[in-house]
Amino acid sequence: MKRSATPKLGAYAGLAALGLLAALALRRAELVAAAAPFLLVVGAGLVLSEETAPEFSVELDRERVLEGEEVELTLRAEGRGRMEVLMPLPDGLELVGGENPVELRLPAERRLRVRCVRWGAYRPGIVFVRAGDRLGVIRAEGRFDRSLPLRVYPAAEQLRSALRPLRTQVFSGNQVARQKGEGIEFADVRQFVPGDRIRRVNWRASARRGELWVNEQHTERNTDVVLLLDSFAQARGRGDGTAERVVRAAAALAEHYLGRKDRVGIAGVGGVLSWLVPGSGLVQLYRIVDSLIENEVVASYAWRGVETLPRRLLPPQALVIGLTPLLDERGVRSLLDLRGRGYDVAAVEISPLAWVAPGARESDKLAHRIWLLTREANRGRLQRAGIPISTWSDEKPFSVALEEVSSYRRQPIGSPA
Amino acid sequence: MAGGIATACSAVAPRLGSELGALGGAGVLLLAVGLGLRRSVTVPGALVLLGGQYAALLELGGVSLLFGSLVSAGFVLVAELSFFSLEHRRARALLRAVGLAVGAALLGAGLLAVSRVAVTRGVAIEGLGVVAAVLAVGVLARLAWRDS
User: ipTM more than 0.90?
Assistant: First the structure.
């Protein structure tokens, strides 16, 4: 801890020196009597102040929590003396129990209840300490970095259904493919051929037709889903914004598709290009959520198109779901580019209108109207390219927006699976 | 408290009471402004003005031992309370300020009593003053050394 003099020490020492010099000059003992207490306070403060070497440790009861949950932060201080301790909490964490800052008499232990208001990766646990001597002339201050990782995952919306991809992959999953083969869902009947299993014989149809007919089923396959997060720009207000909603939507989609044995990947196009190749299982869900909470909007004027993404991120026949606030032309072009490459693309527009109000002046209102028209034109461009798009705003839940996209999608009958 | 010191000094002055009052009033005003603006640098300045008023009163004469002791305690109390209000310290510090003021009064009374007994021995008083001044300079030097 760094020791330093307080303003009081300088003031008292100066007053004492001035008083004593004045006493000497004026030959007045009364001035000595007036100055001596200040000198004594300074002397006693310097003599009584002692080096303090406290030691702090911080513990978190959990390292991974869901948004809205509370964690307990325990601060243990070893040493002796009395000191003020402040543990600043990052934005997104809120103190709900305990005192911060707090004056402690060491050794001591304090527990703070912290609510995780917003998802994100945090490192709470930086401790600022200030100790003073009893007379307030010497101050010791220190900073102890005892930060611990705390990951707050977004509370994902539960989706009962999501977009069905037009094409499936070759691995088994929960998605009913258009292909016929081994499966559960009935597809058709056909004449028996040598090699067919007896249990697939449709006895009712066979009795009616006088020859053996067998059932055909649709296979259950998995799909590859790539979530394209447009983080070129964002609109945000207090505590919420389009970037937050993009992450929330992506977490909900990832959880849904991974729960159905599909493979899910993430591509973040924006100022910083990031990706996570498609994978499946619970580990992939953790990977995705971990990467999502570190996803940030970084302002950049560089054009980083989807051509810079690795090929294995975008497997053939993958369903690409774009989550975009339609605030940047480059995000729209990324979706059009993918569609042009033959991918099955759908988009959900994360509406920024809640945070973008028209201004008071006529010119501001005109600019707002032009901006709305530009957004409408961008939506039209996507729809004309065959990309279904719906808007997710405050007025409806995400699942409704997805359902709108599903109903919008034209599924060509008889297209190869 | 500062106002009380300024008023008392101008009240007991045998002459030039209004001039002394103006000097003390300037000190009180400076202190009030400093506390209002939360500037600790004005505290010693205000005390210097009050001390100047007190020194002028001493030159004019008419200060008793009791009055001198109370003024010494008053200076300490004003300084302690000013820093207390600036630093948001706990109530315990308030008690300590009062204790320091009482100690200052006793110390002042003791010093003044000794000085009056040994009033003919001017060399001793001057020697004490020199030692005290050297001590004060030493404290300042140590302070500067620690800060560096």
Answer: no
